[in-house]
Fold this protein.
Amino acid sequence: MGAIIFDFIYNHFGADHIIGIFYVLNLIFAAISYKLGFARELPLIKSIFVYIMLAVGTVILTIFSLVRFPITEVLIIISFVLGIYRFRLHQERKATKVGN
């Protein structure tokens, strides 16, 4: 079947900048997923270190994306699901606060 986003990017932009495009997409969606699902309140230096390590780890995700694994698609779905979860959690907390 292949990766849908890989086919789209390859057909529209060619192979010239595909590594950079996938790296940026994977980094953006990995950072969103981290922030929505796993981030804790950290001091500034520790937060910077975490995001630098996230940027380094995204290189591996980019390699998997280039061999047509659906990494970018999965990161988009994870970001979407975690966004819905956080929105519902916010709505529930707001309703609980108003109820008290």
User: Anything to note?
Assistant: Helices lie at 4-13, 18-37, 44-66, 71-99. The chain has a mean pLDDT of 90.
